[in-house]
Amino acid sequence: MAETAFVERLRARFPDATVTVAVPRGEVGIEFPNGDWHAGCAALRDEFGFESLVDLCGVDYLGYGSDEWDTDVSSEGFSRGVEGRGAGRFKYGETTTQQTQGIEGQAIESVLHRRYAAVAQLLSVQHNRRVRVKAFAQNDDLPIVASLTDLWPVSNWFEREAFDLFGIIFEGHPDLRRILTDYGFVGHPFRKDFPLIGNVEVRYDEEKKRVIYEPVTSVEPRVGVPRVIRDDARYATASGESAARKAEASK
How far lies 141's CA from each of 35, 112, 113, 137, 227, in Å? Predict the structure, then answer.
């Protein structure tokens, strides 16, 4: 009941936002239009008591809802649904050729304007409540969302990490620079179109007496293999046999 009242209050306060509830966990999420991200977060802090930001990250929705594998069991095992160079699975100098299907079967080209998102996890200690807040960048070529450092200073390094790994620009950030990769690193490694093998490899050159960077030549592209839990009849069979033995013993 308390969650329902909270959700209805959010919907009344933010009519242009999308409020969702993950059932049965009761996780509440709210998605703001890009232009309302900062003001909405400020209202959540000042009007709804979310005094703490516990996490902020970036998300790349390229290929969201698609799968490279058919995991249905058949007499021939599992079949690979991999054709061409899928997201992240190509060599240095190549680009993806995958025609990915997006959310609910839409062609990925039709949802690319909602490719990059910033997601914050807020905590209200006084109300013992959490909420997930999300906003999509308007431009995939230069994804920009407003910085939350003036609302929650702890978001500083979180936003730097999202910038480093996803290339999301946090407008108004006081010191937006890489935090995990090298200063000269090229690209953003958590983007789905970044090669899983990377763009460069590092080795020590005896003649030059220094570490040098060069295009990847010794690593083959990788494909993620899904972890599939199959139905196993042994447990049901053992349970049935145990019940039969007990019934026989009770006669």
Answer: 18, 10, 9, 10, 33
CA angle 49, 50, 53 (to 5 degrees): 160
Q: Which residues have C-beta within 8 Å of that of residue 108, sequence separation ≥ 6?
A: 62, 63, 66, 99, 100, 101, 102
pTM over 0.85: no
Is the Cβ–Cβ distance between 53 and 121 less than 8 Å? yes
Question: Quick check: 93 and 215 in contact, CB under 8 A?
Answer: yes
Instruction: Find all residues with CB under 8 Å of 25, minimum gap 6, and list them.
Output: none
Best CA proximity match to 194, nearest among 84, 96, 78: 96
| CA 121 to mean position of chain CA atoms | 13
Q: Residue 156, SS3?
A: helix
- Domains, the chain, in order of start with CATH, read 1-59+112-187 (3.30.460.80), 67-100+190-251 (no CATH)
In 3D space, the residue among 157, 165, 76 whose CA is nearest the CA of residue 116 turns out to be: 165
Task: Express each pLDDT in 172-198 by its tens digit.
Answer: 999 999 999 887 788 899 998 887 777
Which pair of structure tokens corresponds to residue 202?
A: 């590092």
